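Structure tokens please, single chain.
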Amino acid sequence: MGAPDGSELESRLALIAACQQMNALGINQGNAGNISVRHGDTMLISPSATPYHLIEPDMVAAMPVAGEYGAWQGTRKPSTEWRFHLDIMRARPEVNAIVHTHATFATTLAIARRNIEACHYMIAAFGGADVRCAPYATFGTKELSAHALTALDGRMGCLLANHGMIVLGETLDRAMWRAVELETIARQYYHALLLGNPHILSAAEIDAAMAQFAFYGLHDDA
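Here you go.
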């Protein structure tokens, strides 16, 4: 990992912009949360304990995806959650961006240790009929990473008990889109639970929605 080239600088700037955007969107607050993106054989990840409006490109840590575990370069240490970011990147080659936030409603359900059931068809954007809540483990630990990987099996998002959410993306834009959608579904499900007995979509209804999502965002060349 040498000095960043132009395309890597663009990736670093996009990561910083996304960190700032997740707070502006209200899906995170303060210095909580973190973001990583894949750049070739490298994972770029937001630095530890640094206010997002103060992050400069050289503060974004670079970690080899397949090299020495935990090795990094940069002027700031990587986020304390680098383990689950790196483990997900290693296990899921189709994932090119990971967003972790402490969004209010997602975290509220995670505190209650509830899976998010198929209360809305947009749950299909996460790969199945629910978004699982991973068991609790101390932040930054290998145990938390293992729990997250299990909860993310076959999924593009999960909750972390008493902690927050993780969402995955084929691109950084898709990961940010899923983060907003997951917090929206969490808010809807929370309020439906307050009303009592929310209606949950059937497996067939979610399968139909997932089939539609195969073409979501694609346009005919016309």
